[in-house]
Specification:
8-stranded mixed sheet; TIM Barrel; alpha/beta; 24% helix
Length: 209
């Protein structure tokens, strides 16, 4: 089964408590590597892979697991997208994270759209250390985004003043492929729609993989 767009939620932990978070309150949950292995056994490739949380920095080992299982089961990945608040607690964490995403970058087949996205918006309660941002600027696929505005915020999770969210439920299942957005959460569940809060995800489980 080839998936056009796959999002993997590798953790529900976060180092911020932003009022605008559509996921809701953080949870002390990391994805079990077993779930990643089971998923990658069942698919042949992914065109666009997104890695999300929570905050992906807090589960670097899961990024390595994704690459390891992709190699083990010969799962082709064309490009990836990771959004992060880029708040690193130490040089060790920073270096481990960079090593993991470089490994993922080197594995991807195309990388035309691969991106490490720094979510730099006014709603974050803390900002990262400038020395880490300076180092990230040397990475060709690093993107500093300041575009999020109040009118873009989704009425979901902690935020209750924004747009009423209409999730993209446009999955098309064909003989050997799935077109549309598949969300694989930290509990090992396949969700239809990528912008649900943690409390809402279980209402949208689908059995397509």
């Amino acid at each position: 089964m080839f998936i056009s767009s796959l999002t993997i939620e590798i953790t529900r932990r976060c180092n911020l408590s932003c009022r605008h978070c559509l996921r809701g309150n953080s949870q002390d949950i990391d994805i079990d590597p077993m779930y990643i292995g089971i998923l990658f056994q069942k698919i042949s490739g992914v065109y666009s892979l997104s890695i999300t949380g929570g905050e992906p920095i807090l589960n670097i080992s899961a990024i390595r697991d994704i690459v390891s299982f992709a190699k083990l089961y010969n799962v082709e990945i064309n490009n990836f997208y990771i959004s992060s608040n880029c708040i690193f607690d130490s040089d060790i964490t920073f270096n481990n994270f960079i090593a993991a995403i470089i490994e993922l970058y080197n594995y991807c087949k195309e990388n035309v759209y691969s991106q490490l996205h720094y979510s730099n918006d006014k709603f974050h309660t803390r900002k990262p250390n400038q020395k880490y941002l300076d180092k990230l600027m040397d990475i060709p696929f690093f993107y500093n985004d300041t575009s999020l505005a109040s009118e873009d915020l989704i009425n979901m999770g902690r935020y209750r003043d924004g747009l009423v969210q209409e999730n993209e439920k446009d999955i098309i299942i064909e003989k050997n492929s799935i077109r549309g957005n598949i969300y694989f959460n930290a509990l090992g569940q396949v969700i239809n729609g990528v912008n649900w809060s943690y409390s809402e995800q279980s209402k949208h489980i689908i059995n397509v993989i």
